[in-house]
Amino acid sequence: MADLIDELDTWLEGNWDPDLSVAEWWERLGTSGWAHPALPEHAYGKGVSRTDALAVSARIADKGALGPPAGLGMSLAAPTIATHGTPDQVEELVRPIVTGQRAWCQLFSEPGAGSDLAGLATRAVRDGDEWIVNGQKVWTSGGQIADMGMLVARTNPDAPKHQGITWFAFDMHQDGAVDVRPLREMTGRALFNEVFLSDARVPDSWVVGGTNNGWAVANSTLMFERQGLSAGGAGHAALALPGTIAGDLPKRAGDFLRPRNPGSGGAGAMVAGSQQLFIDLARANGTIDEPSVRQGLVKLHTLTEIARFTNLRAKAERARGRELPGGGNLGKLAMSDLVRASRDLGLAILGPLGTLHAYTPEERKVLDAATGVPATAFVTEMALFAQAPPIYGGTDQVQRNIIGERVLGLPKEPSDERTKPWSELPRNG
Prior knowledge:
The chain is α+β, with helices and mostly antiparallel strands. Helices cover 43% and strands 12% of the residues. The strands form two sheets. It has a four-stranded mixed sheet with strand order 1-4-5-8. A four-stranded antiparallel sheet has the order 2-3-7-6, with no helix packed on it. Helix 4 (72-84) runs antiparallel to helix 5 (87-98), helix 8 (274-285) runs antiparallel to helix 9 and helix 8 runs parallel beside helix 10 (327-350). Mean pLDDT is 90; it is low at 232-237 and 260-265.
């Protein structure tokens, strides 16, 4: 680890320049292997462990440099394509990810296929060297600023539902064929979207992992997702946004070195550092001596420490060339517990103020002035958002089923869905 960090420090001294544009800086960072060092060397990485990669990201921030491009391209698409893609696909698809040129979204879930992802109905039909895609996706994070999408579509409806799916790299820039509609949440934000695909086209060269082998490829994507959503798994994301739509690429890289809004980074960013915020808030309003509040603080600390030790155990297993069975699923469940504990504790400390919430930046200023407690909007947003992590990325129930069946070896529920053609299965059944 020390040698890796020394190598990084030397590279940063010779390459970091705040006067570069974001695009120029990310080009240097991405092509050097430092943007996503956990990727293999043949895919613009350095082949280091995920733990070491997080240490690299933290070091870049500590040295005062702009971090690598964040988003689903980096966390999901790049490692999936590096695992299942061809060398040509790595060059065409991964390089623009690590250099921030393209932002990605995930076109997996559908109105009738959420937890049962293999039941998806979006169809892709071969047309020469292309595929024509029709269907609807939902809960698409970042779809409104995405250049590309990770698309799973049904390519053989007469095969069992897990066997007739294909994973595509998908171009989101298709006027009239791709319609992205934001979905506003009860927090007031619109992190998710629904996406309608109408005769959209994908080149056959962007099939990743082989036709009708998409379930295996999608499982790799989901594994990377669960690792990223695990408690303690939050990285050090850049403040600049990748891709052609967000508009940050031509801007000066040094202008993005400012404190991050703790309410804008999802569950991981919200939970990180919340313990001290709750302690300070409880001391300020006199609830620090209430037994229920003190118990809540201890519970939150305990859950955080358990998650930290689980991550250390997973790191030790990887150092021995092994994986912690069900580690990603356990981490995902731990994150759900953490956000629920944070929700309950934060509202207990706020008391009646917990019934107030601000839905826009302007309203947050009004709320801060009215309550005199600047943390109010952050705590109430955390409380409202806490319902999401136990659902997205695979529900808590799905994680427990995976642990039971694949780790503990418990029998699966009786079903003929793995042998009966998808076209003969009941919908929403």
